[in-house]
Structures are given as C-alpha cells and as structure tokens.
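Deliverable D4.2, example record:
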Amino acid sequence: MSTPLTTDRTGLIPPTGSRNWWLLYVGGPVMVVFSAILLFPELVYERFIWQYLWGPVVADANGEPVTRYGIQVTEGYTLVNTIAYLGIVLYSLPGLWAFHDALSIDLTTRLAYSLAPIIVAGGAMRALADASLLGSLDVWFITPSIYFVVAGIALASIAVGTALRDRGLLSIPATVGIVGATWAMLALGWILLYGLTAAETFRPLVPVLTLSIAIVVTGGFYLAGSVTGWSALHHPMYLLVIFGQMWDAAQNLVGVTLYGYTPKMFLTQQLYRWTGFEGSTFAVKLLVVTFVVWILVDGENDLPREQWWLIAMVIIVVGLPMGVRGTTRMMLGV
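Output generated by the structure prediction step:
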C-alpha cells in the first residue's frame, strides 16, 4: 500500500485521505462552481456549462439541437468539452489513489480484468442511449454523466468486495467481476434482443468485423513480442490496453469505410478532416498504442505501482467502451 501524503508545511492542506481532505477535495470544486454561477451566471452557466457541457448532453438525449438562453447547442464533442473532460479525469486520480489507500486494495492485473465487464457494460449502456431505449434515463448514460455512473458502480462494487474480503467470503476481483458480468450480460442481451425483434436495421456482421480486427491486431502485437523479445507485449495488462484501443480504432474504421458513419470524438473528427484518409485513425492508433505501451513499460519501473496501474486503467477506460459503443450502435443501425 502506498504511503499517504502528509500535510504541507503551512498546515493548510489536510493529510490525503483524511475526512477534511475529502471535504476539501469533493466539496471545494462544488463550492467554486456554485459561487462562480452565482457571481457570473451568464458567463459560467450559460456560456460555459450549458453551451459546452450540459447542453450537448441534452441535445444528444433529444436527438436534435436544443436552444436555451439564446444559445443553440448540438450533440457531440468540441475542443472545449474534450479538455474539460480530460481535466475531470486527471482531477479524479488523487481521489482514486486515496480510495485505494483507505480500503487497502491490491491493484493487480486480475482486478483490471474484473473491471473490464463493468467498462463493457458502460459502453453497451451508451449504445442503448443512442438507440433511445432508456427513456428519461438517457442523460445519465451520455458523456460526461455516464463516467460518474460507471465509476460509482465500479467503486461501490469494490467497496462491497472489500467488505466480503475482510470477512473471508469472496475476493475483491471476484465480487467486481460478478457485478460487471451480470450488468454487461443484461445490457448486451437487451441490445441483442432489440436487434433481433424490433430494430429496423440489424447488422450482426459488425461485431464480427470489429472484434476480429481488434483480436488480430492484438495478436500481432503478441507475436511481435515473441519476435523482438519485448516481453511486455505478452503482459496481460498491456494486451488489455492494446485490445481496448484497437477495438475503438476498428469500430471507427468499419463505421467510416463500410457504413458511412462520421466520427464523434473531437480529435478523431479533426484527424479525418486534416488527412482526408478514412483509415487515418486506425493507422494513428497503431502508432499511439505502441508509444503508450513503451511509456507504460518505462513507467512500470519508475512509478509507484498504484500510479502505474491507474494510468493504465485510464487508457483502457478511454478505449474499450468506445469499441463496445461503436460496434453495438452500428449493429443496431443508429
């Protein structure tokens, strides 16, 4: 277990993980945002939160542009909300670390794989929202809301797993895996049932194509590890990183080249616009994944285990659910 940080020399910052630290960590940003809204409602809420954060969620849930406060917003990602979401992810890392310390969690490859079904379930729920099958709950399964929902379920399952572990009943990975597998099977089962019985379009070939591409490329990395002697490419954690990112790349490739979809992510949109090449994201992903694995391998030796694991999980979380969502929504023709 990593050593908690102590107070700073001024005594203004409480020890990491203490009650006062959690109050400051969670309550501080909330108070800052609410104060800013009260002082500058038009600038902060209307021109920032509504225009770039909450408005696109409402527009996505409604399936059409929405106008409020004289500002029309559309669904999708922009440079502003992409940076904002990245900032939220980075801000969450100290909290996750403190959560880990408080519960004495072993951050292992087994735990990462047990979390994978929860991540898959999140991607499937996002596809259900795309298909307008969640009714008024749609807004909770659209970025950024979905990240809080999925993270909450993951952390709750870990907390329950900790209690069961302490009683000698079940390990944390087993508990998390059961929760995730149950949720994923229900969500994917709903998608499959809808596709077979009610969807106007059903393309069962889509998951075959995207999964095959992701598996073949991941296998290629594994084979490259054997040929080059780079043993990291045989490590299950790195293989999960590679598979998640390449599934996302595969669904982009299949969607754009075969079914006329346009990318939703801001960076992907810009990449297609700059290159005009339909396979540009896939090619760039291959290069980026290789670079990311190299950085992670280097960091595994230099960083504390907890930091390295959390960074690897963040990379998995921004790849794997995108592959699930893109694949399942294309399968349903939405």
